[in-house]
């Protein structure tokens, strides 16, 4: 009876030792290989020696990209099909000393505008929009600065007219050249003490 009990105890001890050894090996594998390869964490330096840290960094970059794409998908469509072709134009405006002009495109919510403009002299510029249905005189400003060129993209956050106000701050006449592409249907040119000039696009 005593020998059976001792054998049972010895068996349990061997089983516990084997389980402990397995846990130790699993922990070492986790620390030495899994953490560097999956998460870029290398407390023992074995991941760097085995070339696993690069895998971990790549995995983190992929996870970040997927998370960013998922977040963007929740806020706005990544692909927004349109039922018509986009328009492209290059226009030039002359602006006298201390004079100004505005040029805006009509865009529906979610439509895109790609633009680049440059001026032959320094200007005060404001990139802004007037939402449909807004009170008279209201505008939402996107950017406000001073300079002679800018480029970028806009996805219209609402339906309305979106564009620029340029003011010549020099003592000589300047030229503003704008190149754009987008799903706009109309353009409006505003100058003080002059009728609004409208342009229609297909």
The CATH class designation of the largest domain is Mainly Beta
The helix fraction, in percent, is 25-40%
Work out the oligomeric state of the chains in this entry.
single chain
CATH topology of the largest domain: Jelly Rolls
Question: Can you walk through the features of this model?
Answer:
The protein has 202 residues and is of the alpha+beta class. It has 2 domains: 2-75; 87-200, GOLD domain (Jelly Rolls, Sandwich), CATH 2.60.120. It contains 3 helices and 8 strands. Strands 1, 2, 3, 4, 5, 6, 7 and 8 form an 8-stranded antiparallel sheet that branches. Strand 3 and strand 4 form a beta hairpin. Helix 1 (2-39) crosses helix 3 (53-75). The radius of gyration is 32 Å and the shape is elongated.
């Amino acid at each position: 009876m005593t020998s059976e009990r001792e054998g049972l105890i010895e068996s349990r001890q061997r089983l516990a030792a084997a389980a402990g050894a397995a846990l130790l090996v699993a922990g070492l594998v986790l620390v030495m290989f899994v953490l560097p390869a999956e998460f870029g964490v290398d407390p023992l330096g074995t991941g760097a020696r085995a070339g696993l840290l690069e895998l971990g960094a790549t995995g983190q970059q992929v996870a970040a990209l997927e998370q960013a794409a998922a977040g963007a998908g929740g806020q706005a469509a990544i692909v927004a099909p349109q039922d018509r072709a986009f328009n492209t134009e290059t226009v030039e405006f002359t602006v006298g000393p201390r004079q100004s002009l505005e040029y805006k495109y009509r865009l529906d919510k979610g439509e895109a505008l790609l633009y680049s403009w440059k001026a032959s002299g320094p200007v005060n510029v404001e990139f802004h929009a007037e939402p449909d249905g807004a009170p008279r005189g209201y505008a939402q400003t996107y950017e406000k600065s001073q300079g002679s060129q800018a480029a970028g993209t806009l996805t219209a956050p609402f339906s309305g007219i979106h564009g620029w106000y340029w003011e010549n701050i020099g003592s000589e006449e300047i030229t503003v050249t704008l190149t754009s592409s987008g799903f706009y249907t109309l353009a409006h040119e505003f100058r003080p003490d002059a009728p609004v000039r409208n342009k229609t696009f297909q």
